[in-house]
Amino acid sequence: MENAVQITCDYRERPSGIPELLREKGCVVDTVRLFAGDYLVNQLLLVERKTAVDFTQSLVSHRLFNQCALLAKSRFRPVMILEGNPFQLPGKLSTEAIQGAIISVCTAWHIPVIRTDGPAHTVAMLYIIGKQQLASRPYSARLGRKPRRPIRQKAQFLQGLPDVGPVLAERLLEHFGCLSRVLLADQAALQDVPGLGAKKAIGIKRFLEDGIG
Fold first, then answer.
1. Of 124, 120, 108, which is closest to residue 71 (Cα–Cα)?
2. Across-strand partners of 28?
3. What pLDDT, in 10s, does the model give residues 132-173?
4. Order of strands across the sheet with 28-32?
5. Is 27 in a helix, a strand, or coil?
6. Number of H helices, E strands in the chain
7. Exposed, middle or buried: residue 128 (CB in 10 Å: 0-12, 13-18, 19+)?
8. Band of the pLDDT at 12, cuts 50, 70, 90?
9. Does domain 6-143 correspond to CATH entry 3.40.30.10?
10. Beta 113-116 vs 39-41: how paired, if at all?
């Protein structure tokens, strides 16, 4: 099935019914544990699928930008599918907060956000993406793709830390010289970085030192 869309799904996506719907459309679907994203399309594009509820919850819990960091570190092209309308959900999040998060994903993390109405629409979108990739693969192979600059990759990694945006990530790298020194720095050393006060330094150290769970 050389011309079939190949999709690797994270096993946690089974309850959504999307993997089975993709098979019904003729995709070759494999279910494994993905360490980043939910769907890997044709071994080229890594898709993080978020329902409207999950998007808002992950924003409140600060998981959203940690997940963006994992996507950005991947060797695959990242995309986020936002399923449903987060602006219509009851809750404490303002429209401005949700808009700001979507803009940040697109501009600070360079991850396109595609809106869909529900699982069936998501399936159609994944299928179209896969077909377009297959059609453009010969051209892409000839054209080639420049690797990301290492400094940008490292800065994106640091943006997974609490309250660290693009500017502060670059300052951390400039100040310490390499990622390992940033991660091993104590609170006092972190506070020497312009724009990084005691509160942010404490938050970063707590994030790095807390256990899983």
1. 108
2. 6
3. 877 765 444 434 444 445 677 777 778 778 888 878 888 888
4. 28-32, 6-10, 39-41, 45-51, 77-83, 113-116
5. coil
6. 10, 6
7. exposed
8. very high
9. no
10. unpaired
pLDDT in tens, 32-81: 998 889 999 988 899 999 999 999 999 988 889 888 998 888 888 899 99
Residues of each domain in the chain carrying CATH 3.40.50.10130: 6-143
Amino acid letter, 10: D
State whether residue 114 is helix, strand or coil: strand
| CB 210, CB 62: distance < 8 Å | no
| Residue 212 vs residues 92, 143, 206, 209: alpha-carbon distances, Å | 27, 42, 12, 9
CATH class of 150-208: mainly alpha
Q: Where in the chain is the domain with CATH 1.10.150.20?
A: 150-208
C-alpha 97: how far from chain center: 18
* Strand bridging mode 39-41 / 45-51: antiparallel
Q: CA–CA separation, 67 vs 168, rounded Å?
A: 19
- CA-based max dimension of the chain: 58
